[in-house]
Specification:
Layout: H1 2-12, H2 18-31, H3 35-41, H4 47-56, H5 64-70, H6 76-86, H7 90-99, H8 105-118, H9 123-127, H10 134-141, H11 150-169, E1 174-175, E2 189-197, E3 201-207, H12 209-220, H13 229-252, E4 257-259, E5 263-265, E6 276-282, E7 285-291
Antiparallel strand pairs: 1-6, 2-3, 2-4, 2-5, 3-7, 6-7
Length: about 290
């Protein structure tokens, strides 16, 4: 969505700091309504139908609306109407920036005009919040030097992770760059999973304990307050579901991989020395993606 791209724009222009982005994301999440809830509220889908689509998203890299239309739960016209309602999500983001005192209305207008100009967006496109290609954001912000042919796979991996964070964790991710110089909330937990086959990929998610508990709570649908077996299993399953969908995408490209068992421990710091680390900002903290 355009709200994600606009936040990236402000962050990478140096207009907002990493900490300010976290605060904006918290505010935005409180106002954003998911498409399934909108469909239920409009009487277009039942709770069972929404849950069925959510289940399908665990095995297919498709948007909620596309799957709902495929299943016959929504018509194309109904989907368009719902997206127009949901698509106004950039308004809470801009309001949060002003409410927090990060920009005045005049400054916000200047940055918005520059954003639209730089991205060749018409006023109508902005008002209707036309989707922005996640791949475009990833490729603008990230680089995988010396990765060779694997760079394309890494780009696709992060792009899918962005989509799956929205789908399964109900949050809007942003790339955090540069990394905070002094991180007072160390990434002291890491869940890993390797993929072996036509290509070999080592993946991992490193996070602080508070982030682990939030990821586990959102993915499991239960409020978890301590790092126990359920919390650990929930975070590991989130990575497993993401990697499973990614493996399915690779299969469509003729690349076969098998997922290895997940591992989770508290040795995240050493992983920064090898491979690539991509830091993602969420409304509840920082999630580091480890790739090699």
């Amino acid at each position: 969505m355009l709200d994600q791209y606009f936040i990236h724009y402000l962050l990478n222009k140096g207009t907002l700091t990493n900490e300010q982005v976290y605060e904006v994301l918290k505010h935005e999440r409180s106002a954003r309504v998911k498409l399934g809830l909108l469909a239920m509220n409009a009487g277009l889908m039942t709770a069972a139908q929404v849950e069925e689509v959510h289940h399908l998203q665990r095995i297919q890299d498709k948007q909620f609306g596309a799957l709902a239309v495929e299943k016959g739960f929504l018509s194309n016209g109904q989907l368009t109407s719902l997206l127009e309602t949901q698509g106004r999500g950039h308004l809470p983001v801009m309001q949060a920036v002003v409410d927090k005192g990060y920009l005045s209305l005049a400054q916000l207008a200047e940055h918005l005009a520059a954003f639209r100009r730089d991205n060749e967006l018409t006023e109508e496109e902005w008002k209707t919040s036309q989707p922005v290609d996640t791949d475009k954001i990833i490729r603008l912000l990230l680089d995988f030097p010396a990765a060779g042919d694997m760079a394309e796979i890494y780009y696709d991996y992060i792009s899918l992770l962005f989509r799956n964070i929205v789908r399964f964790l109900d949050d809007n991710p942003v790339i955090i760059w540069p990394l905070p110089a002094n991180d007072s909330n160390p990434q002291n937990w890491v869940v890993r999973q390797a993929m072996a086959g036509d290509v070999s990929i080592s993946t991992g998610l490193a996070m602080a304990e508070s982030v682990l508990l939030e990821v586990a709570s959102r993915f499991s649908g239960e409020l978890l307050r301590q790092v126990d077996e359920l919390a650990i299993d929930s975070v590991a399953e989130f990575l497993n579901v993401h990697n499973g969908v990614f493996g399915g995408n690779l299969s469509e490209l003729g690349i076969a991989v098998d997922l290895q068992p997940q591992q989770i421990d508290q040795a995240a710091d050493g992983d920064a020395k090898t491979g690539y680390r991509v830091s993602i900002g969420l409304s509840f903290g920082q999630l580091d993606v480890l790739l090699s």
